[in-house]
Amino acid sequence: MVQIVQTLGGSFTVRTAEGALYSVAGRDADALGVEPVVSPTPASSAVTGGAIVEEDTVWKVLRTCYDPEIPVNIVDLGLIYDLSVETLEPGKHRVQVKMTLTAPGCGMGTYIAADAREKLLRTPGISEATVEVVWDPPWHPSMITAEGRRVLGIE
What we know:
The chain is α+β, with helices and mostly antiparallel strands. Helix content is about 20%, strand content about 25%. It is built from three helices and six strands.
């Protein structure tokens, strides 16, 4: 028996009776007795003429990614340190993201980075994506945006 503890970003975080947390992809939600969902990504209209991916589009995609233990997206948590968009050829772009985690021992880091990469690759116009976890500078709660603070109730 598991308890669903979070349903943000198109996936589900469940807690077992022993207290372990697991993430279940939205497409696999039927295993939880819930209707499967497709992870949200910006509409293809966010890509100008199908040829140019704007940095704003990448930020929108990253705002659909959540730490399964915290109900705030990774952008508003202040986890994204750098991103770049490079045009490879018309309609094909490479996105590189550098992000951190709230703690070096975070067991969900690989999952969060993979989720971000997967969502970026599903975005029209993005053909390559790299999400690198870095530790410098160390994350601190002061990096949380005003919106993140509002959601967490620490305004």
